[in-house]
Amino acid sequence: MSNEGGIVNALYSRLLLRDFFGKVVPGAVLLVSALSSFIVQDSGKLVLSLPFSLWLFALGISWLLGFAVQSFGEQTQLIRHYPKILEKTSWRNISSLKELDGKNLKGEYDVNIGYVHFQEYITDFSKTVNSFDDIQQKERFSVIKEACGNGYVALLVATTKILGEFIILNHGKTLDTLLSHSGLIIIVVATIVYLRRMHFICADQELRFSVMVMKNFDHLK
Known about the structure:
- The chain is mainly α.
- The protein has one domain.
- Helix content is 71%, strand content 0%.
- It is built from eight helices and no strands.
- The protein is globular, with a radius of gyration of 21 Å.
- The two termini are 36 Å apart.
């Protein structure tokens, strides 16, 4: 069990989980959707027969595409790595965890200020917190937040691309064909919606946990 625990700790501390689930998997979704136009019969057998070097190349391309997905999500604000309260005030001004909903704070939301406050909060956490368990717990929130955020954006882009091609190729019988795949469509849409929801939940939970640790709150006030 100690060896297994050490492996898990290493995965978090070396950011391997964040790179794999937050970059490679969303990038792979985008890569597969891009190649879907070229899928032919028995393409599955062809993929499985690819040499290991090409698998590594595809892994690297997926990793790079993951950054493109994240950049697109951040620019369009489909992805937000912090709760909107940081667009109004610094975490240092928070005296109670109840204030993290931002409902009683005056002033307008400013994305540029939010980014500055987010970087300030990350820097303060790295300088203030020494507990490995606390650092690992924050990283866990970050992994889930990034994986869900990049994942839902990648699925959204891929689904839009595939659906657009589908409508063009099936002009005149689109509705009937879509209805025949209604189960799959419902699953994909639900996955996108709930990955998005979890992304923002984890962004909020990460800040709440970090503020609680840095300000030494004993419990949720």
